[in-house]
Design a protein that fits this description.
Number of helices: 2
CATH class of the largest domain: Mainly Beta
Shape: extended
Number of strands: 40
Radius of gyration: 54 Å
CATH topology of the largest domain: Immunoglobulin-like
Distance between the termini: 183 Å
Helix content: under 10%
């Protein structure tokens, strides 16, 4: 019977584990030297020195990415577990979205009246709000300055428990223009339960001003011509009750506005009026007169404020109840008159006394229509012109009114002036001289007022008058002079070559009508003249600069009429040692004297020069003819 595969397998296994088996042939492999091994005939557990055992195989190290993966997986599982725990167990958390700030009250109010409001705070969180504080702020006045606000005292609420609501009553007073919206800001500061962090919940409540406490109405022209006086009105009407007894109106003028007068007169400066007399039946009306300075197409902005001033600054409205803004555009006059004095165009001129002043008036029709019967008037006024020297040119001078008049009878072109047409008229006069006279005239000046007018056909045969007025001021500069004189002091007389002669030099001031400031006098000494020093008794600030060889008198301020009712003079001594080359000549002791100062009234620098001083001394009683020449 053939052997089965199973029996064959068992037979192979038996031979495999049999130490005495000879069936399988074994081949012995040679070695370098025989090694004897002691082997047990039976299977037994391994015992003996562990150090002689073969070390176990080490596992390869785990990679970084595998570690990161396992860490992220553990964190995710933990987060999901914590979230599930918080959801099912009702954990503690605080969110601003779960805090409601509800404002109950009227959304409309009259400006300046108290508005009561109720603020309710609802905590819908499952945790308490600790150290809660309620903060209320709203605009102080009618302006929109975010820094100018009223802050109510901080309301310390304390703890608002979960699900609890807290109610507070407040009162505010709002200002603004009618139909404007004023926002009240409500803020809640709190600490979440178990936390030291501060959180804030904000809410804004808008209130519409149904009517302002007072109304401002400004009647200001849209346009104005430069340097022309015009009048505008500001009217204040009371709508409710006056919020404060110290209420005022302030008009803030643009830089180009020149204030002239107002009815009633301002309470402070030229821009603040009291509203003490204001009532609902008695409005306050202010009429202001002035002029704008600028170029055509320039815009001048006027601001009007009604409110109260602060104790620290009474010249500015601090709390604004109402305000408005008006813009005036500068335009060319319909009939333009430009005045040139001595060929120059300026608002104020400065000329010397005794000078001839030439005036030219250029006129232009700036309208798009014809002007008929044009007339030009020039009025001369002041305390410094000679009426007998007025030359009216083609015009007529009326000495009784000091007016020069031009019309179509004197200049035919003025009968009909086409659009854009232009022309000019001239006149001249002489200013009064105050030099060398004991004249007490103060601030001598001349004013030129020029008006030009005509007729314009507006509707068919109906004519309307149009006019323009220009003004110029001429200020007479003070006559500021210095006189020089000399006297023999010591040494040879007449002066002798190569010998010293000393002289005393005197400088004397004269000033006519205006105060002079920052005055100085300077003169250089010739190379053959030496500085000795100030004369005895001289108290003036006079010194010598060796580098420039200049004698300098720092005069300072000189009063009007100096040289007549008061005297200012300085004296110093110089030494002359002439050379043989100067024998027979009259040498100079001091070169030209230059005098300068600032006229405080005319606002200009005045200067004068005095010629050199020589050894010819006619005012010295010891001087004789011939004593001025150098001898050998």
């Amino acid at each position: 019977m053939p052997e089965t595969p199973k029996n064959r397998i068992e037979d192979i296994k038996r031979h495999l584990y049999d130490r005495e088996d000879v069936t399988i042939a074994r081949r012995t492999v040679g070695v370098l030297h025989p090694i004897a091994h002691k082997v047990s005939n039976t299977w037994q557990a391994d015992v003996g020195d562990s150090s002689k055992m073969t070390p176990p195989l080490r596992k390869p190290p785990t990679s970084f990415f595998k570690k990161f993966f396992w860490g992220a997986l553990i964190f995710f599982i933990g987060a999901v577990g914590f979230g599930a725990y918080m959801y099912f167990s009702g954990g503690i958390s605080v969110s601003n979205d779960n805090i409601d700030i509800v404002v109950l009250g009227n959304a409309f109010t009259k400006g300046g009246e108290e508005l009561p409001l109720q603020v309710e705070i609802i905590n819908r969180n499952n945790a308490s709000l600790e150290l809660a504080n309620l903060i209320i702020q709203y605009p102080r006045g009618a302006n929109n300055d975010p820094t100018d606000v009223v802050r109510l005292p901080r309301d310390s609420i304390g703890t608002i428990k979960a699900g609890q609501s807290v109610t507070r009553n407040i009162k505010v007073k709002l200002f603004g223009e009618e139909k404007s919206i004023r926002n009240i800001k409500i803020s809640l500061e709190y600490h979440p339960e178990g936390s030291n962090a501060i959180f804030t919940k904000d809410n804004e409540y808008g209130v519409t001003i149904s009517s302002a406490p007072l109304s401002l109405i400004a009647d200001i022209p849209d346009t104005a011509t430069p340097d022309q006086l015009f009048t505008f009105e500001v009217t204040t009407k009371l709508n409710t009750s006056l919020p404060s007894e110290g209420s005022v109106v302030q008009v803030a003028y643009p830089n180009g506005f020149v204030f002239d007068s107002a009815i009633p007169e301002p309470m402070i400066g030229n821009s603040i009026w009291s509203l003490a007399s204001l009532s609902q039946t008695n409005p306050v009306k202010i009429s202001i007169r002035g002029k704008v300075i600028g170029q055509p197409d320039d815009e001048q902005v006027f601001h009007v404020y009604a409110g109260t001033t602060s104790i620290a600054n009474a010249t500015k409205v601090n709390v604004v109840y109402n305000s408005l803004l008006e813009t005036v555009k500068i335009v060319k006059p319909f009939l333009e008159a430009q005045i040139l004095v001595n060929g120059k165009d300026s608002s104020i001129y400065s000329v010397s006394g005794g000078e001839v002043v030439n005036v030219e008036i250029f006129w232009t029709n700036n309208l798009s229509s014809k002007i008929t019967d044009a007339e030009i008037y020039a009025t001369i006024s002041g305390n410094a012109f000679d009426r007998n020297t007025i030359n009216p040119g083609e015009g007529f001078y009326n000495s009784a009114t000091n007016k020069i008049f031009w019309d179509k009878n004197t200049i035919s072109d003025l009968a009909s002036v086409e659009p854009g047409a232009r022309g000019s008229v001239r006149f001249s006069f002489k200013t009064n001289s105050f030099a060398g006279t004991d004249n007490a005239t103060k601030d001598p000046n001349i004013t030129l007022d020029v008006s030009i007018r005509g007729r314009q056909a507006s509707l068919g045969s109906i004519f309307s008058d149009i006019s323009n007025v220009s003004k110029k001021v001429i200020k007479i500069a003070s006559d500021f002079q210095i006189a020089t004189s000399g006297a023999y002091h010591s040494g040879s007389l007449p002066p002798k070559a190569e010998q010293e002669t000393r002289y005393t030099v005197n400088w004397t001031l004269s000033n006519s009508s205006n105060s002079i400031t920052q005055a100085t006098a300077k003169a250089a000494l010739p190379v053959y003249v030496k500085w000795v020093g100030k004369s005895q008794g001289t108290t003036e600030n006079i010194s010598y600069n060796e580098t420039t060889r200049e004698v300098i008198w720092n005069i300072g301020t000189v009063r009007p009429n100096t040289g007549f009712d008061t005297n200012r003079e300085a004296s110093f001594v110089v030494s002359l040692v002439p050379s043989l080359s100067q024998v027979g000549s009259v040498p100079q002791l001091v070169k030209d004297v230059y005098l300068s100062g600032t006229d405080s009234f005319a606002g200009t620098v005045v200067k004068s020069t005095r010629g050199p001083l020589t050894t010819f001394l006619p005012n010295d009683p010891r001087f004789k003819n011939g004593n001025e020449r150098v001898v050998n």
